[in-house]
Amino acid sequence: MLRQSHLLTISDNPYFVFPESVGAYRDYPEHSVSREKGALGNFNIHYVASGKGYVVIEGRVHDLKRGDAVLYFPAQEQRYYSSKDQPWDIRWVHFYGNGLAEYLRERGFHQRRLWTLRQPDAWERAHLELLEEADNHKMLRPTRLSTLTYAVIAEFVNQAVPLEGFTPSMASSRILKLLAPMQQEAHKPFILEEWAERAGITPHYFCKLFRRTMQMSPLDYVTRCRLQLAKQWLLERMDARIGQISEDAGYPSVSYFNRKFHEHEGMTPSEYRRLFGK
To answer: Which domains does the chain have, with CATH numbers?
Structure first.
C-alpha cells in the first residue's frame, strides 16, 4: 500500500513549518531510496511503524525497527530501504520553514540522524492527522497544514532520543504506563517508594529509569502535572483563594507554589488569573 500526498512548495513561505509531502508505505518490500548529497532541499523524517528496514550512513548499514526514525537535514545524502523478509510500514514527511534549522540545531538534532521515539503512538497520531488533512483538503487550508506539521515536529522533538545507546526494556514500558496515573494523582503527596512498587522496581532504579525514559526526574514530572492542574483551577475556580488552589494541587506551601508557577509561566498565579480570567 502506497499512500502519499505531494503539496505545492510556497516560495515566499510565511509559516514556521510547512509540509512538502507526507505519506506512508506498507507491504512494499521494493521500497528503496537513494539521493545524492545536495539533491533535496527539505528536511524529512522517515519513521518505522512496523517491520524492518535499513539506512546507510557513511557506508555503515543500520537496522531500523518499530519506533525508530531517521531525520535528514537539507542537502544530506540519503540511502534507505525496506527489508525484503519483513517489509516495513514506514511513515514519512518532508517539510521546510523559516527558522527550522536553528530550532533543530539548538536541540542537538543536527548531531546525528538516527533516533527512536519513547512514545511512538503520539507521533503516529499526529502524522495520521497531517496525512488525512493533506489527502482530503490539499492546499485549501494552509494554516491547518502548518499547524499539523508543527504537531508532528513537536512530537518528534519531545519523544526522540538517540538510537544508539538506547535499549527499550519492559521496565521502560512500565514507566510509560504510569505517566497517566501519575498525572491523575499529581495533587496527592508524591511518595517515591509507592510509584517504584507500582513499576515493580527499586526506588533508585525507578528514578534512574524515569530520567532515562522521560529526560526528567519523577518529581519534575509531577511538578509539571501539578502546575497544569493549578492553571486550570485558577480559571475555573475564580472564587477560590490562591492558597486553596495551591493546597488542592498538592503544594506544601503557597510561597513554593508561587515560586514554581513564576519559574514556568513568567508571572504569578494572581497575575495569570487577572490576565486570562473571565
So the answer is: 2-162 (2.60.120.280), 169-278 (1.10.10.60)
